[in-house]
Amino acid sequence: MLGAERSTLSELAKMTAASQAERTVLEEEFNWLLKEEVHAVLKQLQDILKEASRRFSMPSPGLEGQLKQENFILGSSTMDQVKGVLTLQGEALTQADINIKVTKSSQLMHFAFRDDKQWKLQQIQDARNHVNQALQLLSSRDESYHFKTGAEVNKLMDAIMLQLTRARNRLTTPASMTLPELAASGLMKMFTPPMPGDVMVNFYINLSKLCLTVYQLHVLQPNTTKNFKPAGSSVLHNPGAMFEYNNTKFEVSHVHKVECVVPWLNDTLVFFTISLQLCQQLKDKISVFSSFWNYRPF
Questions:
Q1: What pTM was estimated for this model as a whole?
Q2: Measured on CA atoms in the order 187, 191, 197, 202, is the torsion positive or negative?
Q3: Angle at Cα 95 formed by Cα 115 and Cα 180, nearest 5°?
Q4: What CA–CA distance (Å, rounded) separates 200 from 204?
Q5: Is the bond leading into 59 cis (omega within 30 degrees of zero)?
Q6: What is the SS3 assignment for 71?
Q7: Fewer Cβ close by (within 10 Å): the C or N end of the chain?
Q8: Is the distance from CB of 250 to CB of 244 less than 8 angstroms?
């Protein structure tokens, strides 16, 4: 019996020594990950996000400190009802030149931004701010910084991923608006000649596209308002949507949406995707080690 016990103890001792050796190797690998690989990933993230940030504020060649102006031609698939040229400078629409063919009369109306007006695209502004906040988080942990636990790395990755997800969501999810909000928006006061009361427009970003929606309206007569049901909030309202503004009830008769691709917005969305993948991969590596040391705060 003693011999059997001794051999069991000997095997246990060997297993303990083996698992101790394995633990030591894992600990060395984990320390290397904290010291070297985390900083390599942070450097990679910083380079990618600097490129993303640069796309939001491309300087004009030869003009110090001035943003590049880009012209985009809006095409329509709806029988050329709406055509236009938009001038984008960073986050601002500095000019919009729009031709609208009124459906019922085939009359052609032309509108352009007043010279003293620009329209800020809040989505681009917000996305850029989130990228810059992610860059600030990265610069707060320079190469000399020593990460002590996996939990600390995860916390930083989560904070960066939150900013990047918010940046991406601002470009992929335009704001919903009610039709009275659109009617009251400052955008209606941007044009010369002024927009007539039966036409409304909206600009927004959807993914890498700059979109213009034109709504043609007709006034509902008092005897037809018994079935009046105001439309809720939406990015795009359909014909038949009703609303009340300044004590007058309207119905949307026609909707025309035209858009154009902004290549640098496409670049930034790709940068966001790559950055989020890098963050997640680093978190996954940390979690592999944490499963070996459940009692340590990795």
A1: 0.82
A2: negative
A3: 95
A4: 14
A5: no
A6: strand
A7: N
A8: yes
- Chain position carrying tokens 């979109």: 211
Distance of alpha carbon 271 from alpha carbon 269, whole angstroms: 5
Instruction: Specify whether the CB–CB gap between 259 and 206 falls below 8 A.
Output: yes
Q: Which of 193, 34, 10, 181 is nearest to 99 (CA)?
A: 193
Q: What residues does 59 pair with on adjacent strands?
A: 67
pLDDT tens sequence across 93-152? 999 999 888 777 778 889 999 988 889 999 999 999 999 999 999 988 877 778 888 888
Structure confidence by residue, pLDDT tens digits, 43-100: 999 999 999 999 887 665 655 556 788 889 887 555 678 888 999 988 899 999 998 8
Mention every residue, 6+ apart, whose C-beta is less than 8 A from residue 180.
Answer: 243, 244, 245
Residue type, 262: V
Hey, what amino acid is at 244?
E
